[in-house]
Design brief:
113 residues; mainly alpha; 5 helices; 60% helix; 0% strand
């Protein structure tokens, strides 16, 4: 996930958390940041970040956005190429592993006994 995608996703989540039933607009986000943290960034800078024109942001902006969204500042960077966040494996695969573990446990018990 790119930084731009993460910021758009966080605006979406924040809008939902605030009962808007839609993503916060950039303007709403900037007003909320100012009101709740006292910090500010420009709408054009935020637009450049979300548009992918700025793949990196300043440390002060990263800290401000992380504080507002309540995420670790390290989250607000592009994920490495090929990286996928852990989402767990399908339940069917976990069941197969559990069954295999039980069988292996039983074999070890027989061998030890």
């Amino acid at each position: 996930m790119t930084l731009a995608e993460k910021i758009r996703y966080l605006r979406e989540v924040e809008g939902s958390l605030r009962g808007l039933d839609r993503p916060m607009t950039q303007h709403e986000l900037l007003k909320a940041i100012k009101a709740e943290t006292g910090g500010s960034i420009s709408q054009s800078y935020l637009s450049q970040i979300e548009g992918g024109k700025r793949p990196h942001m300043t440390q002060s902006t990263r800290t401000l956005l992380a504080r507002f969204f309540k995420v670790h500042p390290g989250f607000l960077v592009d994920d490495p190429e090929g990286y996928q966040a852990f989402r767990g494996r399908p339940r069917s695969e976990r069941r197969l592993d559990q069954a295999g573990s039980r069988e292996r446990h039983a074999q070890l018990c027989v061998a030890a006994g």
